[in-house]
Structure formats: structure tokens, C-alpha cells
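Exam revision sheet. Question 4 asks you to relate a sequence to its structure. Input first:
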Amino acid sequence: MISNLLDPVLLQTDIPELQLHASGKVRDVYTVNERQLLFVATDRISAFDYILATGIPQKGRVLTQISLFWFDFLADLVPNHLITADIDAYPASLRNYADQLRGRSMLVERAEMFPVECVVRGYISGSAWKEYKATGAVCGIQLPPSLKESEAFPEPIFTPATKAVTGHDENISFAQMCKIVGVETASHLRDLTLRIYQKAAGYARQRGIIMADTKFEFGRTARGITLADEVLTPDSSRFWPADRYAPGRAQESYDKQYVRDYLEHIHWNKQPPAPGLPPEVARRTSEKYLEAYFQLTGHRLDG
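Answer key, C-alpha cells:
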């Protein structure tokens, strides 16, 4: 349960001593120096490509703490960009912003990012299900003709996408990815993505979560190909409660589907300005994020 939903959410960071490198739907990224960036996960939430007027309490903390858990869990498979998430180890100038940064920030190594999303799918859902119904394939991969919605693939499939600054990422074929980053790099990223997914999904299943699909971002650092950004969170993945899984329909999830369902219910036209959320919807969504953290780690997020 949430310890204090009356605490204000953090919708926008304010660190005037640093240059804002990028501001996305959830994260604000600051330049610390030529080698380091500061990632801060806010409580913003987006749906249908728009940031909503209401934040989700503790969401940024959950996303950061889940990513930290996975960085540690996957360290034997791939280097990651994390330097530290301990505010006491941050540059002295950043410690003045401890209230904004504690629990929701990471000091990371700057990487030369690949311009593709590395998406892996173990189950057919979302945009993959729509494409499969229309074509019998997903991202150019021909699939068995009788799959049901939310059914597991015979083997996980790699379905890359191009990164979109605004709007949806665009699914591409592996051949298209090879043209963007080169055959050798594309093959390495594909194989690494599948290995990471298989290890993480096996662990998650033991914890009662089906990891239906997820996406990773990689870059190059002095250590070679490096895992970056957020990792295996409810924002970048589709998590299903294993005890309620049943193929042939859409599944309950730990992600923001609850918010999407509310917006559909009020018949929002999916045009700006994006509406706010009632307190109950924000509270319930926050509980889903916190429950995902607990299921994966076995620990409650400290209030």
C-alpha cells in the first residue's frame, strides 16, 4: 500500500546549476560533465502519446529502483551505464537537491546511443497482436497461423523499432535494423537482447510475473556495448500477474493500462490538452507500480 498519497508528486525537476540535456515523457536528463549525465525519473505519466496533467505518486522512485535492481541482476551478462544512485556520492553541488533526487535519480556514464529500440516479445499482445491479425507476421517474422491473443510464441522474437522523439516508435524488420547500425552490431544486439530477456523473464516468472515483452536501449562506452536508460520497468515492459493469466484475451497488467482504460471510459478524444486523473485512479495506478516493485524484489519501497 502507499504510505502517503498526500505527498506532492514530482512533475518537473529544477536543477538550475546543470544544463538540461533532454526531457522526455518521464525522465529529465542533465549534463553533469562531458562524461556523466544525471537521470531523474519524475512522476509524470503519459498515455496515447500525451503527458497527463496528473502525476502518479512515487512512480519515478519505482521506475528508478526497479532499474537499479535489474542493473545488478544482469551485471554478469552486460555492462550498464550506472555510476551510482547514492546521493552522498554525487558531486557536492547536486546534494543541495537531495529532496528532488533521492530514490529517483542515477548518475550515469554518457554513452553513444544506438538509434534503435531493442524489443523482445515472448507473448503476442498490443501492436504485435494487431499486426499479426492483419498480416500473419510481426516485423517481417512469419508466425504460426492459429495464435491466440496473449499466447506465448514458440520462442521469443526480436522485433526492433526506431526511436521516435514524439509519438509512437515504429516497428522495423531486422533487415532494416541492419541497414541502420550494420549487420554485425544488429546481430550482437539481437542476441544480447534475447539472452537478457530469457534470464529476466525466468526470474520474473518465479516471482509470479509474466514478462510478456520489453524493450532495451544500448549504447557504446569505453567498455563496449552498454545497457542504458531504464530497464525492465512497468513503463518499458508488459508485466502480467501469472496467477491470472489466460490466453485468448487481453490480460491484467502492472503497467498504466488502468489509466488508458479510464481515459477510454471518459471518451477523451486523445488530443491536447490531456486531462487530469481523479485521485482514485492516480492512487490505484500508484499501487500497481508499487506492487510490481514488491513482486520483483520481495521488498516494499520505503515511504
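Marking note for examiners. The two ends are 10 Å apart (CA to CA).
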